[in-house]
Design brief:
Blueprint: E1 3-8, E2 11-16, H1 22-43, H2 48-89, H3 105-131
């Protein structure tokens, strides 16, 4: 079982851990050291046991806050999943009737005139093409 030297609040400790867990222990020690350093800065030198107790309590408080936030997010995810499931299983909406406004007669007449002029032009072009 490997032993890892950690530093918490300016004090060094040798701690045993499982093989392969050294990095996790170092990360946890860094978190504890961060809390302990705040205590040492605020109060000066305090007994080791009190420093470790207070640092642990501060981390536990932070962890409880994170757990509450995670629980809230999990509840929100569950609600969103339920809403998504409800939306997916709901029948499709009824088709809506779309009415197109009637084209005024003046526009229809103008289009008919334009078509007649285009046909007349095409006939003239065709006549000139066959006359050549």
């Amino acid at each position: 079982m490997p032993e890892v030297e950690i530093s918490v609040g300016g004090r060094t400790f040798d701690v045993a851990c499982q093989e392969g867990e050294e990095a996790f222990l170092q990360a946890a020690a860094a978190m504890l050291d961060s809390e302990a350093s705040v205590l040492v800065e605020q109060t000066g030198r305090i007994p080791e046991t009190r420093m470790l107790l207070m640092s642990g309590l501060m981390l536990a408080d932070r962890t409880a806050g994170v757990e509450d936030k995670v629980k809230g997010l999990e509840d929100e995810i569950a609600a969103l999943k339920a809403e998504l499931t409800a939306l997916k299983s709901a029948p499709p909406p009824e088709p809506q009737r779309v009415e197109v406004p009637v084209v005024p007669n003046s526009v229809t007449d103008t289009l008919a005139e334009l078509a007649a002029q285009a046909e007349a032009l095409a006939d003239r072009v065709e006549e000139r093409g066959t006359a050549s």
